[in-house]
Specification:
The complex is a heterodimer of chains A (525) and B (286).
Chain A (H helix, E strand, L loop, with lengths): L4 H27 L8 E12 L5 E7 L6 E9 L4 E8 L2 E8 L5 E12 L2 E2 L28 H12 L4 H14 L11 H7 L4 H14 L4 E8 L3 E3 L3 E8 L2 E6 L4 E2 L1 E2 L3 E6 L5 E3 L5 E10 L12 H6 L3 H5 L5 H24 L8 H12 L1 H18 L1 H5 L4 H25 L3 H4 L6 H41 L4 H7 L3 H12 L7 H6 L5 E4 L1
Antiparallel strand pairs in A: 1-6, 1-16, 2-5, 2-15, 3-6, 4-5, 7-13, 8-10, 8-14, 9-16, 10-11, 11-12
Chain B lengths: L5 E4 L7 H12 L5 H5 L1 H10 L7 E5 L5 H7 L5 E6 L9 E5 L5 E3 L2 E3 L1 H12 L11 E5 L5 H4 L8 E7 L2 E9 L15 E6 L4 E6 L4 E2 L17 H14 L4 E9 L3 E8 L5 H6 L8
């Protein structure tokens, strides 16, 4: 390597800046480290609107609590001074209570909090330990969970018949309830009703599964909550929990989650209850405002140093919603991908169509999936390269011909998209994810290469481009790389210094070691 | 990196594309002057200006509208070459000669005037030059010196001399073969023959894979064969290098039966295969 002096100075400066910033922020990050690493974060607001009664009006609703898989912070209640709010423990549940003495007036209250959730998998053993005492209340019949009703008893016996272990029994019960067609029934459906109507919503299905389990001697209960997603909704959710080896295990027979609770399930209360209750006869309306929050798993936003860390990194851009996390990631990956291609070209000596094409194709692959994407890329290049051949023969000028190629490329993409939509083929409808213009130029160059250097060399270049695409794709798939790049964008300074070194690399490329083999002494070590 | 698995020794001082670009081309050739060499018409103007022998120019056609009139004026010649001014790798070059019946022949096939004009149109449209347009150069056809017939008797062989700061570094003789369609380029199945710079003699034949002592189409040994006009050619190469404001060049020469050595063209990015042909790296030839 032949590096002039002024180079060394620039390299050292860049390295030093990156190092100082990096160490400073890494230190902040260590100090803000959380023990609770969430998978998803949501901001949730309950909103209740009502007209008060002629006497005291009461609204009650369950409030979320912390547990092993959900963390609730920043609870905030907003209300008029005439309304009193209190929260109290109701058994193991937490309940909010809004009371007002004001008569005949329109009021609104809200309660908001931040939810950090983790998904939870439960491993089930083949056979369960015997149920300990004190679980009787989770085995008996209630008004809506008719454990001993004859159709339920018969179904439970029938389902158990062909199973050998406890796990298989639970699987059979779950499968049966899961296959009942789901219907958005707002009114209360009890266990028996769900079975007889052959359709049910979450509350009917959760009760039926609980009734079947209880009949066979497995303690079961209803869990109430909300499935969180970016929306403004009114539906709450209920699922079943079965007590297995001293643990309450989640089963959602509506959404098909067997012994699994997704990260976006907000748990609110235990028991066959209603999320909201209020003084009867009043006008009442409600909604749940839910917004998904972008976040970095490592970064505890509530900790002290996190604001400095946000200010000294690009995370602030995402927090202020000026750019989405994904777009920012793609932007930051561009130089890194470019560096990879530069390394492959100047050190390995592979030939690629363009410098940044492999990087952009790798981006498209992140959306389409690796194999599908590679096949689509090959198809586009070959197809457009070949259908423009007749235009070559016409002896057209270069620039107008490029316009024809571009038009054909856009048409092929649009057609693929249309067909994909019409026949519901998802990989076809992802054609437009590819960088059109660069792809066109490559197709053009490919068809020209075939003429100039023959099909052999042209396909060689194409395959080497695919190799570069694969390497870039592997790089982009590294987990946590997005976090590092967003929190430590100074990594890009190192990209500049690496490129400066690479730009002065005078050694033989690996491909040249093969080419000049007769003149070199190459011995394996 | 590969050096962790292999021990690579480079006793012959072979240079790769990286070193060629950084140490030979960038410091010696300014990009603004590239066009003087890349454009054959401009290159010939410089050669003419300095009185350096090169093929006579019969016509330079810049516009499609000029093709017909220019072509009709060339009918008195019996042999000529049509080439794109900015072509590369020998693309678009056609050697035409008049047959007994007065028709033009190219690679053994008759070409009508319409076909020839079509070819010139393609050249001007930039089909062979990675550009949106080009200029067509029609010049005298070189008749190779009988010396070459002793090795192989088809096509036009040429010498490539690499010069750095006006000093010849390395040279080779490129010859067509029965498989190369009259072209002498190594990557178009021509062969390269090494040249001993000091004595002006041929060394070994390299066909891109193997070394031998004879042209692939016959058994005549080439080793030690004296190259005619060798020192004249070295002088010509030096003179050419002085004429151009470019310090690292690949100069192509041919030897005409009657007129002797002629400059064919000048390259700013000469290929590295010459090292293989001579079994010697450019670094060591410094």
């Amino acid at each position: 390597m032949n590096v002039p002096k002024q180079y060394k100075f620039i390299l050292a400066t860049l390295g030093l800046i990156a190092l100082i910033l990096g160490v400073y922020k890494a230190n902040l990050l260590v100090n803000t480290k959380t023990t609770f690493v969430a998978d998803e974060i949501y901001q949730v607001t309950y909103r209740y609107f009502f007209k008060t009664d002629t006497s005291r009006t009461i609204i009650r609703a369950y409030l979320p609590k912390n547990n092993v898989r959900q963390e609730i912070t920043s609870q905030k209640s907003t209300l008029a001074p005439t309304i009193k709010f209190s929260s109290y423990a109701d058994g193991t549940n937490l309940r909010g209570n809004w009371t007002t003495e004001v008569n005949n007036s329109y009021e609104s209250v809200s309660y908001s909090f931040s939810f950090r959730g983790k998904e939870q998998f439960f491993g089930l053993p083949e056979n369960f330990r015997p149920v300990r005492k004190g679980m009787e209340q989770y085995l008996g019949a209630t008004k809506n969970i008719q454990v001993n009703a004859e159709p339920i008893a018969e179904l439970a016996r029938h389902l158990k018949q062909s199973t050998r272990t406890d796990k298989e029994t639970i699987q059979a019960l779950f499968a049966y309830v899961h296959q009942i067609p789901s219907a958005p029934i707002i009114t209360l459906t009890d266990a028996l009703g769900a079975l007889e109507r052959r359709e049910a919503s979450c509350n009917g299905k959760s009760r039926l599964l609980a009734a079947l389990a209880r009949h066979l001697g497995y303690p079961a209960r209803i869990k109430g909550g909300i499935v969180l997603k970016e929306s403004n909704k009114r539906t709450s959710h209920a699922w079943t929990e079965i007590f297995i080896n001293d643990d309450w295990v989640s089963f959602d027979a509506l959404n098909g989650h067997f012994a699994y609770l997704p990260a976006n399930y907000l748990e609110l209360y235990i028991g066959d209850e209603f999320l909201i209750t209020h003084t009867p006869g009043i006008q009442f309306d409600y909604s749940y405002e839910i917004s998904k929050q972008e976040f970095l798993p490592m970064l505890n936003e509530n900790a002290k140093g996190s604001q400095q860390l946000t200010a000294f990194s690009l995370w602030g851009l995402v927090k202020n919603k000026s750019i989405s996390k994904n777009n920012l990631f793609l932007l930051l990956m561009l130089p890194l991908g470019g560096l990879i291609v530069a390394l492959l070209r100047t050190i390995v000596g592979i030939r690629t169509f363009g410098v940044f094409l492999p990087v952009l194709i790798a981006f498209a692959l992140l959306e389409t999936g690796f194999l599908t994407g590679i096949v689509l890329f090959l198809f586009l290049i070959l197809f457009v390269g070949l259908i423009t051949r007749p235009f070559d023969a016409m002896g057209l000028l270069h620039t107008p011909k490029l316009v024809i190629s571009l038009t054909l490329m856009v048409l092929v993409m649009a057609l693929g998209n249309y067909l994909g939509l019409a026949f519901d083929i998802s990989w076809l409808s992802s054609l437009t994810l590819f960088p059109t213009i660069i792809l066109t130029i490559s197709a053009e160059r490919f068809s020209k290469l075939i003429v100039e250097d023959g099909f052999h060399k042209a396909t060689g270049t194409l395959l080497q481009t695919l190799l570069a695409v694969s390497v870039c794709f592997l790089l982009f798939s590294i987990k946590g790389l997005d976090i590092i790049l967003i929190l430590f964008p100074e990594v890009l300074l190192l990209v500049i210094s690496t490129a400066m070194l690479l730009g002065r690399y005078v050694g033989l490329r690996w491909s040249e070691l093969i080419r000049f083999r007769p003149l070199l002494n190459i011995k394996p070590l | 990196m590969l050096r962790n698995f292999f021990k690579v020794e480079n006793p012959k001082g072979v240079i790769g594309l990286n070193r060629r670009n950084i140490e030979f081309i960038y410091p010696n050739n300014q990009r603004k002057h590239y066009t003087l060499a890349d454009d054959k018409v401009k290159a010939k103007m410089i050669l003419h200006e300095f009185g350096i022998p090169c093929a006579r120019t019969y016509a330079v056609i810049e516009r499609i509208s000029q093709i017909k009139s220019s072509w009709s004026k060339l009918q008195s010649h019996t042999k000529l070459v049509i080439k794109p001014a900015k072509g590369s790798g020998g693309g678009g070059i056609k050697i035409l000669s008049k047959g007994r019946d007065g028709t033009w022949q190219s690679s053994g096939k008759t070409m009508t005037d319409a076909q020839i004009c079509q070819h010139i149109t393609s050249i001007i449209s930039g089909l062979f030059s990675m550009a949106s347009n080009d200029v067509c150069l029609i010049e005298e056809c070189i008749v190779p010196d009988p010396f070459f017939a002793e090795i192989y008797n088809e096509g036009v062989p040429d010498f490539r001399i690499i010069t750095l700061k006006e000093q010849p570094l390395m040279a080779m003789l490129r010859m067509p073969t029965s498989k190369s369609d009259g072209k002498a380029n190594l990557h178009q199945k021509g062969v390269g023959i090494g040249v001993d710079m000091k004595s002006g003699t041929l060394t070994q034949v390299y066909d891109g894979k193997h070394y031998s002592d004879h042209h692939p189409d016959n058994e005549n040994s080439v080793f030690g064969k004296k190259i005619p006009y060798w020192f004249t050619m070295l002088q010509l190469a030096k003179k050419t290098a002085q004429a151009f404001p470019l310090e690292y060049l690949g100069i192509d020469l041919v030897i005409d039966k009657i007129k002797g050595p002629q400059i064919m063209e000048v390259n700013v990015r000469p290929g590295l295969g010459i090292q293989l042909v001579n079994k010697c790296g450019l670094q060591r030839s410094l």
